[in-house]
Amino acid sequence: MPIVKVDGVEIEVPQGATVLQACELAGKEIPRFCYHERLSIAGNCRMCLVEVKPGPPKPQASCALPAADKQEIFTNSPMVKNAREGIMEFLLINHPLDCPICDQGGECDLQDQSVAYGRGHSRYDENKRAVTEKYMGPIVKTVMTRCIQCTRCIRFAEEVSGVEEIGAIFRGEDMQITSYLENAVKSELSGNVVDLCPVGALTSKPYAFEARPWELRKTLTIDVMDAVGTNIRLDSRGRQVLRCVPRINEDVNEEWATDKTRHAIDGLVRRRLDKPYVRVNGKLVPATWDEAFAAIKAVDAGNSVAAVAGDLVDCETMFAAKALLAKMGSTMLEGRQTGMAYDTSSLAAVNFNTTIAGTERADAILLVGTNLRWEAPLVNTRIRKAIKKGAKVFAIGPETDLTYKVEWLGDDLALLGNLPEAVTEVFGKAERPMVIVGGGALKGGHGAALALVDTLGLVKDGWNGFNVVHMAASRMGGLMLGYAQKGGIADVMGAKLGFFLGADEVDFSQFAGFKVFVGHHGDKGAAAADVILPGVTYAEKSGTWVNLEGRVQQGERAVFAPGDARDDWSIFRALSEVLGHTLSFDSLAGLREEMYAAVPALRHQALATFDWQMPSLDTKGEGVLAGYPIKDFYLTNAICRASPTMQRCSAELLHGEDFAEAAE
């Protein structure tokens, strides 16, 4: 490994490291605009100039220069200082003085670095150029006069999201960044360019002019829009969440988040259930908590009681409902509300065993009945990285654009028992083979997919290539807590009393019993309920979620719920007293201790370990995949459906509706 000297300090750096990386290993801060750790090197902003010996007597771009043995690097010499001041002057030639009205103000790289590395005055008095605004869709707001052509957004679109709709036109001083034909960018990850932009050229359209960063209270929590478990930070002011941004977690989401994760938050304050309701003469009327509990107590259900968990609920809520049902003598628990029924006797057989980060290491991948671009977009980006390292991808299912090259085999699950020779040949040579089974293929293909473990050699020392991708944030936690019946939700539809925990996707016409909806939005579940008990959203509770790879994660409360809404677990605790089946815990800490005793894996925020064993299932793949479970990426749950931003994304990006933009 090369040994270099940085400002007189000798350090050893990895082979292939750049001078910029060597400087950072030595603890030196190097300014940059175009360089980003997760994108290819562009070397076009020149802000990272350093002095290098031996070498030419001029500053050099450290991001694009390989570190070499016996190299001397100077990061704060007079030559470097003058060069950085000059570069900053050039960058600011055409930059407008928009800081007072710019949404990037207070967290802007250009502001920070102009103070730290720029001159205290300007020598330019020529007219600044102006660039017309570009239209990039309902998520990204553009003020392109501020753009410094760092090209981060272009490289992100090409390398990470795979939707190459952002590029540059013209040359030199006339260069402009724009979307293709100035149309909306049709990527479910487009909001990440706002975080990447080092100036205020690309900002968040739904968040425009809402708040300054120093006004916001920041809360660390977990996203529930899919089963990836994206680590996020909710920025709130008063009782409203104004912004959602991703946190860095290399094992889960790196530093990305989907547009749904970022912008469904405006649905948190719309269509909310803020008081109990009871159905009287066919109509829902407002009630007190006592009246709502009394209506439930009046139901003569005995032990014919069921609980159905929705897609967004936390483990604490599911455990509280399970504890109440246990006191009432029932074990009818189900979390697969859309009707999926697959074997859950072995959690390893329904887990994403390779892990999200491990996906990058796969060298042969077979997708079975999954549209990963919608079901788990941040797993899809990992597959793109695996392809860059040489992995080959095959897929069974209806053809769709996954943003990378896929060899489609057909849409018949019988193919699982008779894979083409081209597939078996690639997998036979693979060191780290991988199969990903989607929810749509589990019913007719779970056993056949598990049979591939032996035929394709998916499980080896230090490697498990069998994976199931879930779409609901509550799914793995629910399975660990026993929310699964052998026949799926059909097995609980005959109950006389049903608790629906934010379960809006259930076919309520099949449930003839008394329906109690415990949730936060007036959606399908509330419309069908006999009693509504207002609960809280993920932003208004401290909860535990388990992502699709079995990673246990906890989120914190960011804001308080509106009106009479209460924490879901406390609703079941209060109801248990009225029903005469008082639960033994009376605090969140007490509930968690009981939950940890029942399921020890939930105690630690880490990957839960499931012993690898395969259930005995029919290995014959049956059925033709006509489509994928998710029909509209932007409207998958009650919060999204209440969000004006998600409604517009769906209408414009998926259904082709046109929206007029007002001139500014």
Automatic annotation (TrEMBL):
Swiss-Prot/TrEMBL cofactor(s): [4Fe-4S] cluster; [2Fe-2S] cluster
GO molecular function, one term: metal ion binding
SUPFAM superfamilies: 2Fe-2S ferredoxin-like, 4Fe-4S ferredoxins, Formate dehydrogenase/DMSO reductase, domains 1-3
Pfam families (alphabetical): Fer2_4 (PF13510), Fer4_NDSU1 (PF22151), Fer4_Nqo3 (PF22117), Molybdopterin (PF00384), NADH-G_4Fe-4S_3 (PF10588), NADH_dhqG_C (PF09326)
PROSITE patterns hit by this protein: 2FE2S_FER_2, 4FE4S_HC3, 4FE4S_MOW_BIS_MGD, COMPLEX1_75K_1, COMPLEX1_75K_2, COMPLEX1_75K_3, PROKAR_LIPOPROTEIN
Claim: Iron-sulfur is one of the keywords in the record: yes
Leader peptide range in chain numbering: none
Cofactor: binding comment: Binds 1 [2Fe-2S] cluster per subunit.
Residue span, 4Fe-4S Mo/W bis-MGD-type domain: 216-272
Xref: InterPro entries: 2Fe-2S_ferredoxin-like_sf, 2Fe-2S_ferredoxin-type, Mopterin_OxRdtase, Mopterin_OxRdtase_4Fe-4S_dom, NADH_UbQ_OxRdtase_75kDa_su_CS, NADH_UbQ_OxRdtase_ferredoxin, NADH_UbQ_OxRdtase_Gsu, NADH_UbQ_OxRdtase_Gsu_4Fe4S-bd
Domain (4Fe-4S His(Cys)3-ligated-type): residue spans on this chain: 79-118
Alphabetic keyword roster: 2Fe-2S, 4Fe-4S, Iron, Iron-sulfur, Metal-binding, NAD, Oxidoreductase, Quinone, Translocase
Domain 2Fe-2S ferredoxin-type as annotated: residue spans: 1-79
EC number(s) recorded for this UniProt protein: 7.1.1.-
Cellular component per GO, a single term: membrane
GO biological process, one term: ATP synthesis coupled electron transport
Its job: NDH-1 shuttles electrons from NADH, via FMN and iron-sulfur (Fe-S) centers, to quinones in the respiratory chain. Couples the redox reaction to proton translocation (for every two electrons transferred, four hydrogen ions are translocated across the cytoplasmic membrane), and thus conserves the redox energy in a proton gradient.
PANTHER family: NADH-UBIQUINONE OXIDOREDUCTASE 75 KDA SUBUNIT, MITOCHONDRIAL, RESPIRATORY NITRATE REDUCTASE
Family note: Belongs to the complex I 75 kDa subunit family.
Protein name listed in UniProt: NADH-quinone oxidoreductase
Organism of this sequence: Sphingomonas ginsenosidivorax
